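idk why but the lab printer keeps eating my pages so im just putting this in chat instead. protein + C2E:
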Amino acid sequence: MHRLLKRQIQKHLCSELQLDERLQKFYEVISQAYIAADEDRILLERSLELTSSELMSRNHDLQRELGRLAEAHTDLQQSLATLNATFDASFDGLVVFDEEHQIVTYNTLFLELLMISKDEAHLLYGQYLKNILAQRVINANELLNVIREGIAAPEKHLSVLLKFIDGRFLDCISLPRYIEKRYAGRVWSLHDVTSLKLSEDDARHRAHHDALTGLPNRALMHDRLQHAIDHARRHHQRAAILFLDLDGFKDVNDSLGHDAGDALLIEVASTLKSIVRDTDSVGRIGGDEFLVLMEGVHQLVHVTDMAERIIQAVQQPFTIKGEEIHISTSIGIALSPNDGETPENLILHADMAMYHAKRMGKNTFEFFARELALISAQRMQVRNRLKHALFNEQFFLVYQPVYRCRQQNIQHMEALLRWRNDEGKLISPADFIPVAEENGLIVAIGEWVLEQACCQLAAWKKMGFVNLRVSVNLSPRHFIQDELVPLIQKTLQAHGLEPSALGIEITETVFMQNLDQSVKVLSQLNKLGIHISVDDFGTGYSSLGYLKKLPVHQLKIDKSFVDEIHDQRSGALIFSIITMAHILGLKVVAEGVEDAESATLLEQQGCDYLQGFHLSKPIAADDITQLLKQQ
Ligand code: C2E
Ligand code: MG
Ligand code: MG
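predcted complex ->
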């Protein structure tokens, strides 16, 4: 612009025109230049204005951006703080490594778990960490192997259970870490699982050991026996299993209480442990039942020696709570492979042999013999048949009247059990009751008898025969059941009967076995109003002295005495029994009266009631009904 103006001015100044014209021109040029300059200025001003507002807006944007960045920074700092706090508050020890296996960061718990002080923390790098682990961890090599595995396969999840020398267990898990999808090392988390591990170990121990004595239980003995059987088979040797059952343990429990019983079992357990060889094991498999397993048996004499040593040791008095206790043990022995190839079989056979030892008088040992298995199989068969009889209504009751002396009328009846088997043959209770006693079925059978007898009594009551009494025989095993008294009560109620309608007959063996329990149950029954007889009196060697202690109402003199009543001495004995019983306030029944002469003699001796074929055999309920109608 300047140059152009200069040239125009020069052109006009140098022109031929008059001065005023030139001035005029000059003025015009200047004016135009001024106008142009002014326009330029305006343009410039405008453009400057524009630029500054843009700048302002840019500046504004920038300020906003800066604000946002500051916020983001604060957020980031907060997140970082939260992350750090979380990292530190974690229940796991955490440590992060980069891809060069250098530690990036760790939390406080990590230091604590590895027992590294904060001052030493700055020393944490590869070799130092390795040394620390080697000093404190039992299975550091296992950890190194796992780490190598991770180096070979970075994407792999790793885990290892570290066992520390001080007894702790740390469960260590490692995951790869990635930054923008690129492998960037690993994160390890270490969790203290000591208490879990200990309780697991404890549970495992408890599952395999008896809580009272700490000895291996049946399950563990079973495993060991299996192992012994396999070993014996491979090495052509034998393994022996000794099944021990203490004799008289129940008496200790009953008389001195369960605490004393427990203390005794603990003592027996430690005695047994002190006797056996290191290679043998002792286990407790039930109340007072122990097993001794002998492995690598070359000669039978070693087994008999062991059995004798055990018998000797258990025979020595034990001092429990300051009291000297004498017990003994019966032992049954089974040998692999001859007496059984499986642990179950061997234990079962040793158990059978033990029973045999008990029958041989206790405090002795017996080897398993094949015949025992046969006897036991037969018993099993009878048990199954009895069960079958019970559920297939092969049992029925007959009733034998008991007559009042001289008056010839029925005083009461005794319910007697009968079994007609599948072949229609009648089997005597004398044959099957003892078997049912032995295998426990007697309880179910006894309940059936009670129910049937009450049912029949209710039927007679309905026919108008009131004041009748039926007595049932109770086996010793049924008698000691805690449920007996409530069961009797319930059954009587269910049939709308008075307790006086029911009588029970028990033999002397019942109260000779357990006097306290008998007194307890009999007192409860007596209180209810149930009539109680002592059956087969005179055969059980009990004395009349016993009877003083028992709330019973009646004695039934056993048939074996009645049979010999014509003999002078037997007659005198019967007379004295009757007299003594009367002194004690008891009534007397003579059982098995088969002829008129005996009946007369018994009447003369003061006997109260008579029962026997001479008066009536046991007969069906309908026949009893006829007899009752004739009375
Ligand atoms: P027990 O309780 O002493 O019953 C009397 C047994 O003598 C009955 O034998 C009866 O039939 C028999 N008897 C009665 N009078 C005479 C007689 O003049 N001559 C002869 N030779 N025998 C006579 P049974 O019925 O064979 O019962 C035998 C034993 O079986 C019973 O002896 C009793 O101990 C038991 N028993 C019977 N039924 C039951 C029952 O329901 N439960 C229980 N636990 N035992 C029962
Ligand atoms: Mg009887
Ligand atoms: Mg009898």
